[in-house]
Design a protein that fits this description.
Layout lengths: L1 H34 L2 H33 L2 E3 L6 H14 L6 E5 L6 E5 L5 E6 H6 L2 H16 L2 H39 L3 H48 L2 H12 L40 H9 L7 H12 L23 H22 L3 E4 L5 E4 L7 E3 L6 E3 L4
Parallel strand pairs: 2-4
Antiparallel strand pairs: 1-2, 3-4, 5-6, 7-8
Helix pairs in contact: 1-2, 1-6, 1-7, 2-6, 3-5, 5-7, 5-8, 6-7, 7-8, 8-9, 9-10
C-alpha cells in the first residue's frame, strides 16, 4: 500500500512540475510578445508565477470547500441517510483512515460522486441524490470504496492543486486571447503605421507565436491532467475492489451510472470533472469513449476489468485483469503487487436487494427535503407532515384528523 502511495505522490509531483513549466512558459511568451523585449518576458513569467502562488495558497487553505460549494453540495447528518453513513464508516475502518470523512449530498438527479480535501484527516465525500436513489447497498458501497481509495492514495490534494493550476493556465490564456481579439481592430492601423517593414514583420511573428502558445498551453495542460486522472481512476477501482472484496458491486454501479437517462450534472465543469467517479458530461457512446481528451478511462473497460477479478481482489489480481483487458502495461506499481491473497465475498441476497432498492426510491424525496431544511412531523394518526422552510405559520393542521401541531423553531 505504501509503495502505491509513494509512486502516486512521485507521479503527482512530476505532473505538477510539468504543468508549472507550461504556465511559466506561457507567461514568458505572452510578456515577450506584448513588450517585444526579454525584460517583458520575465515580467510576464513573474506575473504568471504570482497568479499561480495566490491560487495555490487559496486551494490549500479552502480549495475543498470551494469545490464543494461550486458543486452545490450540502452537508448532512446521520439522521438524513443512515445507510450512507454506515457504508462510509465501514470503508473508513477497512481503509484505516485516521478520521471519518465529512458527508455531503448534491441535489441532482444525475448519479455521481466525488471525494475532496487536503489530506485523509480532513477529507469529504459527496454523492448525488440520483446515486442514492438508483444503487443498492453493494453498489453504493463500491462507489464509496472508490472515493475512499482516492483519499487513501492521496489523490484529493493533487486534484485540488492541479485543478487550480489548470484554471490558472486557462485564465491567463483566455485573458490574453480576449485582449488580442478586442484590440485587434483598433490596434492594427497603429502597428502597421509605426516602425519599418522589418519591425512590423517581427511584431507579427511574435504575436503569432504568442497566440499559438496561448492556444496550445491549455490543451497541453488538459492532456497532462486527464492522462494522470485516467490512471488514478484505475487505481481507485483496484482499491475499491480490495476494500469491499466484491468488485461486482462497483462494476454494476458504473454500468447503472453510465446508462442513466438523467440530464447532465448541472454543477459540473471542466476543472471539477476529473473528481467524479464517472465523467459528468453526457456524451453519445459514453460506454465506448476512449481518447486523450476524456477525464476518465472508458467505462466499459473499467467494468470488464472489475468483472475479470474472478479469483481474488489483490493488486496483483487487478493488474492481471487490467493487462488482459487493455493489453497495456499495468497501472499498478511493481512494488505494490505483493503475494497477498484477498478472496471474494458473497453478494447480498437478490430479494433483499430489491426490497432495499424500493425503500431507497421511496426515501430519496424525503432525503432531499431534509437537506433543503424541511421540517418533518408525525401525527398521532400516523400521517407524516412535511413542512417546507418558507411556511409562515407557527402551527399546521393535519389534513387527515385535523389536529393542530406546533412547528419547532417557529
Amino acid at each position: 500500500m505504501w509503495e502505491l502511495i509513494r509512486a502516486n505522490k512521485r507521479n503527482s509531483i512530476i505532473l505538477m512540475v510539468m504543468m508549472a513549466f507550461v504556465l511559466m512558459l506561457l507567461g514568458f511568451v505572452i510578456g515577450f510578445a506584448v513588450t517585444r523585449n526579454p525584460v517583458g518576458g520575465f515580467f510576464g513569467l513573474v506575473i504568471a508565477t504570482i497568479i499561480w502562488i495566490v491560487l495555490a495558497l487559496v486551494s490549500l487553505s479552502s480549495g475543498d470547500q470551494i469545490f464543494l460549494s461550486a458543486s452545490r453540495a450540502v452537508p448532512v447528518t446521520h439522521d438524513v441517510h443512515p445507510q450512507l453513513f454506515n457504508i462510509v464508516e465501514e470503508m473508513k475502518i477497512a481503509a484505516a483512515l485516521p478520521a471519518m470523512p465529512k458527508i455531503y449530498i448534491i441535489n441532482d438527479p444525475a448519479p455521481n460522486a466525488f471525494a475532496t480535501g487536503r489530506n485523509p484527516e480532513s477529507a469529504s465525500v459527496a454523492v448525488t441524490a440520483g446515486l442514492l436513489a438508483r444503487l443498492n447497498r453493494d453498489e453504493l458501497q463500491g462507489v464509496i470504496a472508490h472515493e475512499i481509495s482516492h483519499i487513501v492514495h492521496r489523490d484529493i490534494l493533487f486534484v485540488t492543486l492541479a485543478g487550480i493550476m489548470l484554471g490558472s493556465i486557462v485564465l491567463l490564456s483566455q485573458v490574453f486571447l480576449r485582449g488580442m481579439f478586442y484590440s485587434s481592430l483598433g490596434g492594427s492601423r497603429r502597428r502597421y503605421s509605426s516602425g519599418g517593414q522589418g519591425g512590423g514583420q517581427a511584431q507579427v511573428v511574435l504575436m503569432v507565436v504568442a497566440i499559438i502558445a496561448a492556444i496550445l498551453a491549455p490543451i497541453m495542460a488538459y492532456l497532462l491532467y486527464f492522462a494522470l486522472s485516467q490512471r488514478r481512476e484505475y487505481l481507485a477501482d483496484a482499491g475499491a475492489a480490495r476494500l469491499t472484496r466484491y468488485p461486482e458491486g462497483l462494476a454494476s454501479a458504473l454500468e447503472k451510472i453510465s446508462s442513466d437517462p438523467a440530464p447532465q450534472l448541472a454543477s459540473a465543469n471542466k476543472v471539477t470533472a476529473p473528481m467524479y467517479i464517472v465523467n459528468p458530461f453526457k456524451k453519445k457512446g459514453q460506454m465506448k469513449l476512449s481518447n486523450l481528451t476524456s477525464t476518465h478511462p472508458p467505462i466499459s473497460e473499467r467494468i470488464r476489468i472489475l468483472r475479470g477479478l474472478t479469483h481474488g481482489v489483490s493488486y496483483k489480481d487487478y493488474s492481471n485483469a487490467f493487462t488482459e483487458v487493455t493489453h497495456k502495461k499495468s497501472v499498478i506499481p511493481a512494488a505494490a503487487m505483493t503475494k497477498e491473497e484477498i478472496g471474494l465475498r458473497q453478494a447480498e441476497a437478490k430479494a433483499e436487494k430489491e426490497q432495499r432498492l424500493q425503500s431507497q426510491m421511496r426515501q430519496v424525496g424525503d432525503i432531499m427535503r431534509k437537506v433543503n431544511q424541511f421540517v418533518f412531523l408525525t401525527c398521532a394518526c400516523g400521517l407524516k407532515l412535511k413542512i417546507p422552510p418558507n411556511y409562515k405559520g407557527k402551527t399546521v393542521e393535519c389534513p387527515r384528523c385535523h389536529t393542530n401541531h406546533n412547528i419547532p423553531g417557529k
